[in-house]
Amino acid sequence: MPGTIIVTGAAGGLGLAVAETVLNRNESYNCLFTVRDKDAARAKPLHDLIASSSNNNEASTPEIDLSRPDSIRAFATLILNAAFFMEKGSLQFTQDDKDVKGFEMHFAVNYLANFLLTLLLLESMDKEHGRIPDKLKWDPEELAHPKGQVSGGDEAADATRRYGTSKLSLVMFMHALQKRLNATSGLEKICVLGVDPGGMIHDNIMRRASALQRHLLEPAFRPFIKVTNLLYPNEWIRTVQKSSNDIVRAALQTDDPILGQYPKDAYLNGNETAESAAESKDEGKQKVLWEASLRYTRLDETETALKRATVVA
């Protein structure tokens, strides 16, 4: 029976590229490319991609709203044999938006949703080769419920800060989860990896750009990005194709000479090994974030495979 690959946010720019990279591989998988609304116009390219695929993969587009814990839980109950889980639920909001539970939207979608979904799916993962590649004033309560702008009224700068801190939370979760997996009998071979895909220009981003940016600057900039990627593959700006290849490699390449068979707690800048920020390795802050996340998601640890399995002394 083929394994299952889950890509969240598959209608997005990088998510769509990851889906295409997976479908172009020779192996046979059951692919679940999740979207918020399968009937939305932005989901059409994903449907077209699946329809045009000629390999043996089975692909579907189940709906999941990453801003709603009840939607995440409902989706998790449908998963039986998940082999690999690619977290790509990444959004950036210019307004100080909140989800249905009142959490700041970057924190809710980019971090909290992936925390909840990952822990709910642990038990169904491939225990031998399962991998979870994540795509970084620190206080979980301030991240979840920010009290106001901190960038002098600069809305865009404040949105960038909120986006960045939600990603930092995800990297801290990566480190904390790997420690728990290592100590849990039956789950100790599952690997959690972090991949920095760099900055990218794609259609979803350009849809929100000005007419000048879309029709003049962006077409002129794309050739520059391709040349830069040839000379400096892991420079800060990259093509979505390059970044999607890096993510799929981290998730599926079990014979990679650099990553090895069990790349536990590995952090990658594109296709090269790197170190995550020092703050992400602070075990005290990891503990605070973990406990706060359980509380925010109302997740009892007895619901997770970490508790059900026998913990190695």
Would you kindly provide a written description of the structure presented here, covering whatever features stand out?
Helix content is 43%, strand content 12%. The chain is α/β, with parallel strands linked by helices. It has a single domain (4-308), classed as Rossmann fold.
Layout of helices and strands:
Blueprint: E1 4-7, H1 13-23, E2 30-33, H2 44-52, E3 58-60, H3 69-76, E4 82-86, H4 105-121, E5 131-134, H5 140-144, H6 155-182, E6 191-196, E7 199-200, H7 203-206, H8 211-231, E8 237-238, H9 240-252, E9 266-269, E10 272-273, H10 283-297, H11 305-308
Parallel strand pairs: 1-2, 1-4, 2-3, 5-6, 6-9, 7-8
Antiparallel strand pairs: 9-10
Distance between the termini: 34 Å
Overall geometry? globular
What is the average per-residue confidence, as pLDDT, rounded to a whole number?
Answer: 82
> If strands are numbered along the chain, what order do they take across the biggest sheet?
3-2-1-4
Examine the coordinates and then state which fold CATH places here, giving the name of the CATH topology: Rossmann fold
| Structure classification | alpha/beta
